[in-house]
């Protein structure tokens, strides 16, 4: 059995920060393990649709098999004027700025990805005010391990997010795949030989 990829507790905490209203449309930037965990959680919370944006075609192809409604490299291709909830799971400034512009009037933007602390994102404070957009942050885990364990025990299967498992002898190959941005979650299992 592969251990759960990423940190499901972080995704559970991020979900707890959102005003979950059934039937809303979600846009998630990032089809890595954390973005896909968030996609799985919002789907179980009653989302009407879940779309993801990523630049990695392999991740997008996998996201389509993971139950998202659409997986694209550019949110403009989705044909929606906006989303009730937009989640950034990348920490990439360009994704954050684009995502903030795709929140519908009265919607919510969740900053879930870890951005470089030295960088800033540009957005229109007037648009946030005029459209009553809520901007929420989610910092890792705050007492969310038990709810994450409960979700996993109830059948939320995250094993599919692990694309590669290497023993210690495959460390260099695992690092090379990570740096190349290929795969999803690359797991290093010291006991594997």
UniProtKB/TrEMBL annotation:
Alphabetized Gene3D superfamilies for the sequence: Medium-chain alcohol dehydrogenases, catalytic domain, NAD(P)-binding Rossmann-like Domain
Keywords assigned: Oxidoreductase
Annotated Alcohol dehydrogenase-like C-terminal domain residues: 34-153
A Pfam family this chain is assigned to: ADH_zinc_N
Cofactor section: Zn(2+)
InterPro entries registered for this protein in UniProt: ADH-like_C (IPR013149), NAD(P)-bd_dom_sf (IPR036291), Zn_alcohol_dh (IPR050129)
Keyword Cytoplasm among record annotations: no
PANTHER family linked to this entry: ALCOHOL DEHYDROGENASE-RELATED, L-THREONINE 3-DEHYDROGENASE
Name of this protein: Zinc-binding dehydrogenase
Taxonomic placement: Bacteria, Bacillati, Actinomycetota, Actinomycetes, Kitasatosporales
């Amino acid at each position: 059995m592969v251990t759960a990829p990423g940190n499901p507790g972080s995704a559970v905490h991020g979900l707890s920060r959102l005003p979950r209203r059934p039937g809303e449309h979600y846009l998630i930037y990032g089809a890595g393990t954390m973005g896909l965990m968030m996609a799985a959680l919002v789907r179980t919370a009653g989302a009407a649709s879940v779309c993801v944006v990523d630049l990695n075609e392999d991740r997008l192809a996998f996201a389509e098999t993971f139950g998202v409604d659409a997986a694209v490299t550019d949110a403009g291709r989705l044909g929606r004027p906006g989303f009730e909830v937009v989640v950034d799971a990348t920490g990439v400034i360009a994704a954050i700025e684009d995502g903030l512009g795709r929140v519908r009037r009265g919607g919510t933007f969740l900053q879930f990805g870890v951005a470089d602390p030295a960088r800033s994102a540009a957005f229109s404070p007037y648009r946030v005010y005029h459209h009553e957009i809520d901007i929420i942050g989610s910092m890792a885990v705050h007492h969310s391990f038990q709810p994450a364990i409960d979700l996993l025990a109830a059948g939320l299967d995250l094993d599919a997010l692990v694309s590669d498992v290497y023993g210690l002898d495959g460390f260099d190959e695992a690092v090379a795949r990570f740096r190349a941005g290929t795969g999803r979650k690359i797991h290093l299992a010291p006991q594997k030989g």
